Amino acid sequence: MPLSSSSAFSQDGRRMGRFAHGVLLLVAGAAQALSLAWPWARGQGDGLLSLIGGYGRPLWWLQILSLAVLARALQTAQRPAQAAGRAMLFATAWLVATFWWLFISMHVYGGLPAPLAVAAVLALAAFLGSYYAVAAWGWQRLRPAGAAGGALLFSAVWLLAELARGWLWTGFPWGAGGYAHVEGPLSVLPRWIGVYGTGAVASWLAYWLAALPGISRNGARVRAARPLAAAVALVLAWGGLWWLRDAAINAPSAERPALSVAMLQGNIPQDEKFEAGSGIPLALGWYGRELRAATAQLVVAPETAVPLLPQQLPEEYLDLLREPYLKKDGRQAALLGIPLGSEEAGYTNSVVGWQPGQIQDYQYDKHHLVPFGEFIPPLFRWFTQMMNIPLGDFNRGALGQPSMAWAGERLSPNICYEDLFGEELGAHFGNAATAPTVLVNFSNIGWFGDSVAIDQHLAISRMRALEFERPMLRATNTGATVAIDHRGVVTHALVPYERTVLQASVQGREALTPFARWVHAAGLVPLCLAALAVLVVAWIRRRKPSVRGL
After folding, report:
1. In this predicted structure, what is the pLDDT of residue 245?
2. Amino-acid biosynthesis among the record's keywords (predicted)?
3. Closest Cα to residue 363, out of 392, 398, 329?
């Protein structure tokens, strides 16, 4: 065979190999998204199908397995740019498959042309994916010779990328890998190191899983004893974590009966919610009737359950709702989502609370606002003007607003995706005597249709319950309306997209977890410093080849 023909075959083979490699990374990235909330019904049968827990459930093993595919791709990369490109493919596929439902809000409800909505989702995923590309580039540049050092460095750069995604430009850490571990052996870790620390441990495990075939950086076979020892150590650690799961249980708040709760799910169609001829009268009528008819000790109505400002409501509407809850001898309290403010003072996305003997309403104003929905980022007004969505520039509420005390519990509201930012919820946990005993989320996920966004948000709330060991009540317009206990377990739930009321009970917790203590004192700085310390050590060792690798 002529030399030129042999060279052509070789080039074709390399191109096919690169193509297959790229496809594998795209599939693995999509699997990373699926691990956060499985979007299909439970598989029927035994074996591998039995590992799939059902629609909306997180799959911790799939998160580690899919991330191991990326780790393996980085281990075989020859150049930093190649490593960055592989991570970019993986991360972009992962993020597109995670928050593809943004297309629904922009196109279906916002009227943005479909090609532009698709482009916007892709652009956001690629932008956020670049954080992981930079992390992979840095890992390849600083990579130690030893597998242990490589695993530690991979965990550190992955952690930094996740922290950057959760902080820069107000942060959008939706779908962080740690959320897949609200179930499984790593679910014991959030009370100590939070979702980001848990994700870092998962990335460390993924790296070791990728290294088990025994291929080191230079391609030589590692002695068989090493991967065998690593596998045994991982199995032992896994079993230890499972054993510790029930040791993380927090004692109830004093000796008192559980609090009865009614959570209202109005299922107001999103395309009618702010329409004067349909959604508004439907919401005012249904929520008004249910608030007056409820018998539970605590009644919770979701974000913007009342979709009008108080001054826009029919005369005495709020007074009629409030009156039963203000009776001095009453035994009921209510929390209601409603916008507040005026053109002069500015507007807030708020929750008001009513309870016996309290003339002054309790008020919580949303602190972490949604870009493009509740405030318009600089230079992007042109984009929001292309959509037909009721947007506004809301005022930001203070961080660490007080809880509402009721029936021996301290109820701490958070609105919409505020529960995505555990470090901000941590501002409430400085003192066990004043810290919330129950967290309450008010949401309207109707913007994203009947999609997996509902289940992803549920996993986020479950993670907050694990981190702080506090029960979480979720009242939503379309789902998931649920009660979650302090172990992150859903105890009561409504079927999404039904107009009904969830009757539940909740018992608060008072002790502070280690995570609550350090995140209140220092935010996420300790995690950032720990990751940076690993990078500094790797850089020093890289500059001194004579020093033995990690």
Report:
1. 60
2. no
3. 398
Please, what's the b/e burial string for 22-57 (b: 16 or more CB within 10 A of its CB; e: otherwise)?
Answer: bebbbebbbbbbbbbbbeeeeeeeeeeeeebeeebb
Write the CB contacts of 326 (distance below 8 Å, at least 6 apart in sequence).
Answer: 354, 355, 356, 357, 358, 359
What is the structure's pLDDT at 11? Answer: 59
List, in order of start, the domains of the chain with CATH numbers. 15-249+525-543 (no CATH), 259-512 (3.60.110.10)
Strand partners, 505: 260
Strands 259-265 and 346-354: unpaired
Helices and strands (DSSP H and E) totals, the chain? 15, 12
Question: Residue for token digits 């109830």?
Answer: 252
The secondary structure of residue 360, as a DSSP letter, is: S
- 482 contacts 492 by C-beta, under 8 angstroms: yes
Residue 528 tokens, joined: 């950032």
Residue 504 pairs in a beta bridge with 261
Q: Which residues are catalytic?
A: 303, 366, 416
Q: How far is CA 536 from CA 143, 320, 504, in A?
A: 12, 63, 50
Run means of pLDDT, 10 residues per run, the chain, 550 residues: 52 66 94 91 45 73 97 95 97 97 93 94 97 98 89 97 96 96 94 97 95 58 52 60 59 74 97 92 97 97 96 94 88 97 93 93 95 80 77 86 96 97 96 95 94 96 98 96 96 95 96 97 98 95 63
- Residue holding tokens 């088990």? 212
Q: Which residues pair with 333 in a beta bridge?
A: 298
In angstroms, how far is CA 362 from the centroid of its own chain? 28
